[in-house]
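Data deposition worksheet. Section B asks for the primary sequence of the deposited chain exactly as it was used as input, without tags or linkers unless they were present during the calculation. Section C holds the resulting structure in token form. Section D is free text for depositor observations; keep each observation to a single sentence. Incomplete worksheets are returned to the depositor.
Section A, Depositor: J.P.
Section B:
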Amino acid sequence: MMRTMTMRTIAKPRSRRSLADLEPPPRTKRPESLTSREQEILELIWAGFKNKEIGQRLKISVKTVEAHRANMMKKMRVSNTAQLLKTAIQGSVLRIR
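Section C:
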């Protein structure tokens, strides 16, 4: 009886990650500017409107409002609405009246 040999792939050992690997990269580039629609939605967020209310006011779907909000957060490199508003104010993107 003859045995056939099969080739096995050997997994590379995982390296341990340090805390420095988990930190976000330093901000070197300036965020992209917001579109006029994103600016409009940002002002409505500041005014306290929910996504559904914003959608109704602008006659767009809630999903579209969510997409605009996500794009703004990505452009401004933030992860929540509070950071979005803070960064917008600090960067003079949002003017408080």
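Section D:
Residues 62-75 form the longest helix (14 residues).
DSSP finds five helices and no strands in the chain.
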